[in-house]
Amino acid sequence: MSRYPELDEHIKLLKQDENHMKYFRQFALENINSDPKYVKKVFEHLLELVKEWNYKSAEHWCLVYIGWCENFTNNFLEASTTHLIANEFFEKEQDVEGIITTCNALLSDYLNLGEIELAIRNGIRGIELANEVKDECNLIALLLNTAETYIESENYDEALALVERLRSYNYTIKVTDEVIILGILSKISLNDNKLKEAYEYCNKALEIMEKNHDIIDREELMGTRAEINYRIGNYDEAVREFEEIIEMTGRNNDPYFKIKTLIRWAKCYYNLGQYNFSKAKLLLVINSERLNDYIRIRVKAYELLKDIYIKLGEYEKALEAFKKYDEYKDKSNINHSNLWLSVLKYKSAANEAKAYKSLYKKIDLISEIGRKITSSLDLEEILKSIHEEIEKIVDTDILGIALYNKEKNMLNYDFFIKDGKRFQKSEKAINDNTSFGAYCFNSKKEILINDIVNEYWKYIDKSGISEEKLRRLSTSVIYLPILMNDEPIALLTVQSDKKNAYTRHDISGLKILASYIAIAIENGKLFNEVNYFANNDVLTGVLNRNGIIRNGEEMLINNRNCSNSIIMMDIDYFKTINDTWGHHAGDIVLKSVAEIASDKIKEYGSIGRYGGEEFLIILPNSDLAKAKKIGESIRKAIEQHNYPIDNNKYGKITASFGIYEFVNIHESLLDGLKKADQALYKAKASGKNMCISYVEEFN
């Protein structure tokens, strides 16, 4: 019995003539939107038959539509692999229609995988071929899909140029094409903050869909309209629309679009400053079982979650979210390289293979170096890694990395190595007209010099550099700006004592690497910032409760056989200060006391804000006598200091101290804290402004 009796006659005709595959291609186009699973089963059955009949062209057309079915059910990686196999065959056979069709398919696959470069590459290839052979139908599809890819990568001008091309030529635009065009225009207008215009485009597109009973991309358009409603203040309408989209994705069993919609919703709340609502939506994304299938979306989710926790002041959670973001970013980079390997694997035609192998070899080397550079979150480790890896690809007698200090408006050469030796940090003003680095940073242009004596004048003021200084400079130099969102954040220089050491190819390789370096530096800075706030008190700058407790526990683990002490310090009459002078005065006192105490203990231990006006001081390798001496020095300094609490009025502050030395190696930090707290209570009860040790309290 036939598996698909409704198609028996056409299967017989296909067996007689391979060209009858055109019927099944049309069958796929008519049915794939409504039932991609059914279409996939049909084409998998056809694939078995045409392989048996040795119909190679039909075999690869089957793969095209099996790939589209994978795409329609959000299995984008499987879709791209299937389409690559078909594309390779059509390239080899010079089947232009097949090449155009698979370029369009790969464009969609890569767009959904977040591989914008590969998507645009296939889009442009398909557009060029479709234009040559005047294949209007595929040309329109490719122009629209490429425009949507540009929208996804936030290249709105390029997207608009493609839409204008479509409208200015005398193309036959179908109703579904017009809906897509209106959707693209609505996003461009939204980006330009032309909210009324964006709203009108959305409504018009949805009206056309309603009239023609077409539901393709309806959720996407509704999501755009919901975003517009948030921007113009129609919050109830926006919420209603987002809720309807989520309900629709549930009915359609579309977890991919549900996840994308929740992220979009979370961003709307974030932009409104409603961070808890944003977090709630984002946690629904992160807890979704299907999120594992979409690494790029996971990266976006954790990046936004990290930003939300920073805004909420939950720095420990921000740090955890950042670590997750970095973990999945690394996996995303590996996937990126694997996709390029797939391209290489299936591009087997001689000329294509040669070009792709050369391209991939370069990309793979730089990507591998990039992954190593971005694998660390410690800024110092990042800088060392950059040096080690760059030495592998260019001649490097000198390597320097300068980070931009915005507050000082200076370039800080945090990392400068000559002949393998690290030099001390130096600074350069970015308005120094004798500095190659300043020129590079300000102009955002690279410098390539292979003969310093004869070429230096192109970049710096001749009168500002002596012949003696010129002779000390390296003969060949490269300076490269490191950009993030088209703004310079740092610069890289490699230098050689050899003449003509560098080429434009070296510049190209280093420019690709610079994008990794930019990400690594920003990640390192952000990690340091988030890590700082996760462990430090925002007001005083000293360690927070968790940070100081961690230090105390580490002290007891690492110094078991030594004398270890702690001090509990409490500002006297702090509530009176707040009630009399206000919380601003209280903040001044807290910051000043923390600064005084930090200065006194910096050689001996660490200090943290334990809570309110109470501070904990950790003193490893300090016995009770030493701890009491340190406590007394802090007490006197606090007492003698003048505190500017109100308009040139200065007040006097005192503090009380409870001191404890750990005498039993089995005592926990909590045991010690209880005893230090009892000593502090005794100091408070005995008149304040004094140091009492736990031993004295019991004597």
From TrEMBL:
GO terms for molecular function: diguanylate cyclase activity. Keywords: TPR repeat. InterPro entries: Diguanylate_Cyclase, DUF2225, GAF, GAF-like_dom_sf, GGDEF_dom, Nucleotide_cyclase, Rev_trsase/Diguanyl_cyclase, TPR-like_helical_dom_sf. GO terms for biological process: cell adhesion involved in single-species biofilm formation; negative regulation of bacterial-type flagellum-dependent cell motility. It holds the Pfam family TPR_8. It comes from the Bacteria. One of its GO terms (cellular component) is plasma membrane. PANTHER family: DIGUANYLATE CYCLASE DGCM-RELATED (PTHR45138:SF9), REGULATORY COMPONENTS OF SENSORY TRANSDUCTION SYSTEM (PTHR45138). This is DUF2225 domain-containing protein. It comes from Clostridium chromiireducens.
